[in-house]
Design goal:
- Helix 2 runs antiparallel to helix 5.
- The protein has one domain.
- It is built from six helices and no strands.
- The chain starts with a helix and ends with a helix.
- It is mostly helical.
């Protein structure tokens, strides 16, 4: 994948961070700056490190799956894209203020499972792991901050639209891998 593809992947993966942070921004009234930075740091950290696990997992299997690797990447991106789109139509849970360390770690892990899976695609497409993880982590950090402050400032945004856009980006990346 080239740099633009990795940035697009970071944006698609960062949408979960944006939405989780947006929901927290709607709730928080005190210590907003420090809480937004804590939340964004955790989101960026997990989004940036989870692909390493997926990359290593794919690396151990690479010699066996090399000949079909582009189809595996295609299938992963299609599955993630469809998942994002389907989740955009699912009913949303009640908003809970989450700033304790256990809650932040849970939120970080929960929003980065997709990043773990996408780590395999980084290996299968011969992408630079360090650069990819730094970009994904940074994009997620920024999107978390934007989401938090956006939620704090405005109340009407279409989260279903954002999740669907993330899904569409992943599907476009999937199609690009087989062309």
């Amino acid at each position: 994948m080239n740099l633009i593809d990795i940035i697009l992947l970071g944006i698609a993966l960062g949408i979960d961070c944006f939405l989780a942070s947006f929901s927290q921004g709607l709730i928080f009234e005190k210590r907003r700056t420090i809480n937004s930075l804590k939340l964004a740091a955790v989101m960026g950290f997990f989004q940036g490190t989870m692909p390493i696990i997926g990359y290593i997992g794919a690396d151990t299997l690479f010699e066996y799956i090399y000949t079909i690797s582009k189809w595996i990447v295609f299938a992963i991106f299609i599955a993630l894209g469809i998942k994002f789109i389907l989740e955009s139509f699912a009913p949303k849970k009640e908003l809970i203020q989450c700033i304790g360390i256990k809650c932040l770690i849970g939120l970080g892990i929960g929003t980065s499972i997709d990043a773990l899976v996408s780590g395999a695609t980084l290996r299968l497409t011969h992408s630079n792991l360090i650069i990819s993880c730094l970009i994904i982590g940074f994009v997620s950090f920024v999107m978390s901050l934007i989401g938090f402050w956006g939620g704090n400032r405005i109340k009407n945004i279409c989260p279903k639209c954002l999740e669907s856009i993330g899904g569409i980006i992943l599907i476009v990346l999937a199609i690009k891998t087989i062309l």
